[in-house]
Every structure is written in structure tokens, then in C-alpha cells.
Design brief:
Blueprint (H helix, E strand, L loop, with lengths): L13 E2 L1 H30 L8 H25 L2 E2 L14 E7 L4 E7 L10 E3 L3 H6 L7 E6 L2 E12 L3
């Protein structure tokens, strides 16, 4: 069996202004500070002699490859991003960027923000619009009930509030 895997489908290209700023800052940090630092360390390690047995040289080369891969990924993702900074006219419906208050089948209150796949891990409560719960919430209104297929079985939620961050 070979190592080939089919290409992953790209996530949605939407992002909040805060998420875009965070990814752009990460790219800037990698490109302007971290990469030159690692490159200088590689040069210093290479000057010590035999590169095949130089652990510092080998480690730094690996680190540089990882940094370059992340830089390529960030540049490619940021290139096609669509920053969503507007609030929809109908604030009763759930669209990208909304904070949603839900109640699950056990009466537990939940609060989530619907964001893009590149920023759902940025803060607690952020969920990707590509996740099953995110897809189920899109376009719904306050008072509607949704059901989501989860690994542990079907989960039921009631939408009790929607709010959008402005500014």
C-alpha cells in the first residue's frame, strides 16, 4: 500500500478580521524574526565542520523546513481569504461571525461563535462553519431546534439567542 492520499478539500475561505490579523501576524513573525534566526543558527552550525554528525545543524535544518512549510501554507490561505466584517441585516438569523446561545437536550446552556476553519481553535467556544454543528446552525433563526449527527449519536439543540459583534 502506497503513501499517497487524496488531497484534502480546502475549508471555507471566510475569516473574521481578528482571525485574518492573527494569521497575518503569525506569517510576519515567522518570516521576519524566526526564519532569519534559524538561518543564522544553521550558518553557525555549518561552520563547525562535519554536517552529517552535527546534531545542531540537522535539528535547525528540520526546523527551517517546518517554518517554510508553515509560511507557504499561511501565504496560500491568506491569498484567497474573504474577510467578513459586515453584520447581516437580519440579526435573528445565524450567519458567519455570529455568537449563538444554545440549549442542549439536557438543558445545558452553550455559547459558540461561528468562524472560519482557520480560526476555530483561537478561542474557547469558536466553532468552524465547516463543522457539523456549524453547518447545521447556518441560516437558522432564534427558537428553531436543530439536530446534529455526532460520534456519540444524534444531539439536539435549541437556538435561544444570536448576536453579532460590531466594530
Amino acid at each position: 500500500m502506497g503513501r499517497w492520499r487524496p488531497p484534502r478539500t480546502a475549508g471555507s475561505r471566510y475569516i473574521t478580521p481578528e482571525g485574518h490579523r492573527r494569521l497575518a501576524d503569525e506569517l510576519d513573525e515567522l518570516w521576519r524574526r524566526l526564519r532569519p534566526e534559524v538561518t543564522a543558527a544553521i550558518t553557525a552550525a555549518a561552520a563547525e565542520g562535519d554536517r552529517s554528525e552535527n546534531a545542531e545543524y540537522i535539528y535547525r535544518k528540520k526546523q527551517l523546513r517546518e517554518i517554510d512549510a508553515r509560511i507557504r501554507h499561511l501565504r496560500k490561505r491568506l491569498e484567497g481569504m474573504r474577510v467578513v466584517a459586515t453584520v447581516p441585516e437580519d440579526r435573528e438569523r445565524i450567519f458567519f461571525g455570529a455568537w449563538i446561545r444554545l440549549v442542549d437536550e439536557h438543558g445545558q446552556p452553550l455559547r459558540h461563535r461561528l468562524v472560519g476553519p482557520d480560526e476555530f481553535d483561537h478561542a474557547p467556544g469558536y466553532i468552524s462553519m465547516d463543522a457539523p454543528l456549524g453547518r447545521a446552525l447556518l441560516g437558522k433563526r432564534i427558537g428553531e431546534e436543530i439536530k446534529v449527527e455526532a460520534p456519540g449519536g444524534v444531539r439536539h439543540y435549541e437556538i435561544v439567542g444570536v448576536e453579532y459583534v460590531t466594530g
